[in-house]
Amino acid sequence: MTTICVPDAAAAAALGELAGVDVVIWDGTGAAPVGLDRVEFLVATYSSAATVSAETLAGMVRLQVIQVLSAGVEAWVDRVPAGVVLCNGRGVHGASTAELAVAGISSLLRELPRFHADQVDHVWSPGLTDGLDGKRVLIVGAGDIGQRVAAAVTAFGAAVTFVARRPRADVHAIAELPELLPRHDIVVIAVPHTPQTHRLVDAAFLAAMPDGAMLVNIARGQLVDTDALVAELVTGRLQAFLDVTDPEPLPGDHPLWAAPNVLITPHVGGGTHRWEQRAYRLVREQIVRFDKGEPLENVVLDGY
Ligand SMILES: NC(=O)c1ccc[n+]([C@@H]2O[C@H](COP(=O)([O-])OP(=O)(O)OC[C@H]3O[C@@H](n4cnc5c(N)ncnc54)[C@H](OP(=O)(O)O)[C@@H]3O)[C@@H](O)[C@H]2O)c1
C-alpha cells in the first residue's frame, strides 16, 4: 500500500479513485496528522515550504518523493531531505502562463488600456496601433513557456530568437545577450529563478534594449532589478508587461504602480479556473508511475 499526502480534501477528490493508495490530508500547517510517518509521496503546495518544519520532514521516515505543483521549485529546493526526489509541476502552468504573456504583449502593442479608458469615457477614438507583425522577439528560456510563446507570436508574424542555459541549434547562449538585446523589440523572460539568473535583467541588460522595446516578465520578479526597470520606464524609453514583481505583493506605494507604459498582473500566469484539474492529472500520473516503480516525470532534484 502506497501512502500519499495531499493538501486538502478537494485535492484528494481531484485525484479520483486510486486502487491501493492510502491518502493522508495535510496542507503543511498545524499539527502533523496521524499517518504522516507512513507517507512516501508528498504533494506540496508552494507555500508549504515555509510551514513544514525540518523536524517534521525528518520525521517522515518513508518519504521518497516531494511533488510540487508549481514550475518554480526555489522555495523547496534547499529543503529536500537526502534520498528524496523533488518533482515540479512543469506542464501544468505552461500554456496558461504563455497565454497571459501573449495577452500582455498584445494588450500593450494594440493599446488596449487606452481603448478601455476611452470605453469608460464613452469615447469612440479609432487610430492605428502597433502589432506583432514584423516584431523581433527574444525569448530568454526555451522551455515549456518559451516554446509556447514562440508558437503564438510567430503565428502573428513575429520572428523569434531563443536564449537558454544550454546553447544548441537555434538556441543561443546567455553570454550572447549583449549582442542580441539591441536587435530585438520584445524580450520575454521565461527562465527559473536561481542563483545564476538572479537579477539577470539589470541596468546594463535594460540599457542594451533599443528605444521603445518591451520587457515581458512572466517568470519570477527577482529575475529583474525593479529599481533599474522603474528608471527606464519613467523616462518613457521602455515598456513592460509584468505578471511577477520584486517585491510581491507589490506595496501600494511602490513607484512601479504609477510608472508609465507598464501593465501589471498580480502573479496570475498559471491561475486559470482549470489549474487544479491540470495539476492533479499530473499528480495522478506520477503516483501511478511511483506505485509501479516506473521513472517519474519532471524530476528536478534526485536527492542522491
Ligand atoms: N507567472 C506564473 O504564474 C508562472 C507560471 C509557471 C512558471 N513560471 C516561472 O517560469 C519559469 C519557466 O517555466 P517553464 O515551465 O518554461 O520552465 P522549463 O520548461 O523548465 O524551461 C526553463 C528554461 O529556462 C532555461 N534556463 C534555466 N536556467 C537557465 C540559466 N541559468 N540561464 C539561461 N537559461 C536558463 C532552460 O534552459 P535549457 O533549455 O538549456 O535547459 C529552459 O529553456 C519557471 O521556473 C517559473 O519560475 C511562472
Instruction: Quote the distance from N terminus to C terminus.
Output: 24 Å
Give the ordered list of helices and strands: EHEEHEEHHEHEEHEHEHEHEHE
Count every helix, treating DSSP H or I runs of 4 or more residues as helices: 10
Q: Strand tally, please?
A: 13
**Percentage of residues in strands:** 15-25%
Task: Describe what you observe in this structure.
Helix content is 30%, strand content 17%. The chain is α/β, with parallel strands linked by helices and 304 residues long. It has a 7-stranded parallel sheet with strand order 8-7-6-9-10-11-12, covered by helices on one side. Strand 10 (214-217), helix 8 (226-234) and strand 11 form a beta-alpha-beta unit. Helix 3 (94-109) crosses helix 5. It is elongated and about 65 Å long. The two termini are 24 Å apart. The relative contact order is 0.14. The structure holds NADP nicotinamide-adenine-dinucleotide phosphate (NAP). NADP nicotinamide-adenine-dinucleotide phosphate is lined by residues 71-72, 90, 93-94, 97, 141-146, 164-166, 174, 190-194, 196-197, 218-220, 243-244, 267, 269-270.
